[in-house]
Amino acid sequence: MTGTAIISDVAPRDGLQSIGPFVPTATKIALVRAIHAAGIRRMEIGSFVSPRAVPQMADTAEVLRAALELPGLECTVLVPNRRGFELARDSGAQRLGLFMSVTESHNKANLNRTREESFADLSAIAREATAAGLLVRFNLSCVFHCPFEGVVPDAEALDLIERVTAIDPSMEIALADTTGNAAPDQVRRICEQALRSWGERFAFHGHDTYGMGLANVAAAWDAGIRIFDSASGGLGGCPFAPGATGNVATEDVAWLFRRMGVETGIDWNRLLEAADLAAQVPGGTPGGRLRGVPAVRRAA
Amino acid sequence: MTGTAIISDVAPRDGLQSIGPFVPTATKIALVRAIHAAGIRRMEIGSFVSPRAVPQMADTAEVLRAALELPGLECTVLVPNRRGFELARDSGAQRLGLFMSVTESHNKANLNRTREESFADLSAIAREATAAGLLVRFNLSCVFHCPFEGVVPDAEALDLIERVTAIDPSMEIALADTTGNAAPDQVRRICEQALRSWGERFAFHGHDTYGMGLANVAAAWDAGIRIFDSASGGLGGCPFAPGATGNVATEDVAWLFRRMGVETGIDWNRLLEAADLAAQVPGGTPGGRLRGVPAVRRAA
């Protein structure tokens, strides 16, 4: 059961995005540095979206410049469309994050377009980005459960996953439990089938809204997934998915892996510092379970 | 992955035991009735211990009398020793709960005696109780992790499990994650080995201290365990295991099983009522994740 897991901390983007009051750029940079100091070598730094639509991400270029100075860190920036891609292409970010939903109604609510429109645009961007030497992460939201449509049928998820795998053989694909209401048996089943059919290129992105976050991470690990998204301090949530508060906390995931003997390269003391910093961001809705456990503090 | 899980709600005993202020007998009985009304048909009602040692359980006989009036409910009472057994034998409780620890230091801290002393006494009581027509549950604490000794070696746990299986072939045995720091791969491994070696007679008793409660329940289910302890409202904890606050919440476990298509016979609306009632007990330390999720309230 041992091995190595790669944790991509999404607190700077997914964690901060839905916070109302603007988080000062210096605070964002301090958070990025703290997460890096904890030994995490992948991070979702921000997104090149319209500052009118998501004002919290208006300073992504500046945060990214600071992040790119950190040794060994792979920076991901999210882009919703061609305009974002053009901004991101020359930003220095090593990886582009694209995203769309498995379900039509969430795609429309979140992106204001049909899945076919999203897929066509993102496929073209993914190919161009890859040709330009960028790494690409294709994020699929609502793979397991949708706030509007409920439980997603396996076939609906696997159909879209298959189409996405065909865009480029090297492209990483994240299977996201956007609402936190995936069941561990479902996560295991879909992840196993994806890995068996299309190889080791999948990541799992989980939320902890229903307390099943770690159960789903454990199920994804068992299925063979080795790349996990999580947010220090359990920050996050999707403003367009009602009730979908809180990415699974990096410190919770790190503890799970520590107890399972899985390597993450994380410095536990410093991760708790990063988690505390994330949890203290004004306006944030921190989650996670580990920060408050006395025995964990002592174990550091 | 479907099937049926039996949930034994331990809120009336494990959940209330460590609460300082005495919980009025009427409140305890109301809680038992609410949990029963939610469709739960096994419950840990109280314990026949010295009222000096555990004053909160002084009214177990009275609570039990009320519980025994509820149709279809199997009542468990915990007994620490022969004196408790004698009280319990004629109390009307269908099942006796015995308990000791896998680790020497926790057994001494919790029971003030060596494992060998506990094992000898409890073996004799278990045989007498079985001969008297009572059902017996033998609870093993710290099967996976001990607050004093850390991670428990598999062999140490399995050795004691094997000795306990030999007491009586029909006796139910609970594998308890007393500190909540079991890892899901460890739970799966031990449960699988126990079931493979000694048949379908095991229950899993989990805590949620480190947020791994549901991950461990899911792992135990995958391994083949079909009987689970949990506490409505996530009440509970062991006063002799530092940091071990909070049984895994019945409502969280019920949601996990609901999403996995596992039958529990639970009425979701009424379970939320029971959980709210448990969480409101003055002096209690409620846990669990589900009570506060708006989508869960709507799903009821």
* SS strand fraction of chain A: 15-25%
Helix share, percent of chain A: 40-55%
How does the helix and strand content of chain A classify structurally?
alpha/beta
Measure the end-to-end span of chain A.
23 Å
> What multimeric state do the chains show?
homodimer
Into how many domains do the coordinates of chain A divide? Answer: 1
* Main sheet properties of chain A: 8 strands, parallel, barrel
The best one-word shape of chain A is globular
CATH architecture call of chain A: Alpha-Beta Barrel
Unreliable stretches covering 5 or more consecutive residues of chain A: none
Rg result of chain A: 17 Å
Largest beta sheet: strand ordering of chain A:
2-3-4-5-6-9-10-11
N-to-C order of helices and strands of chain A: EEHHEHEHEHHEEEHEHEHEHEHH
List keywords for this structure.
TIM Barrel, metal-binding (chains A, B), alpha/beta, 300 residues, 12 strands, homodimer, Aldolase_TIM (chains A, B), 8-stranded parallel beta barrel, 42% helix
Write a concise synopsis of the structure shown.
2 copies of one chain form a homodimer. With 300 residues, chain A is an alpha/beta fold.
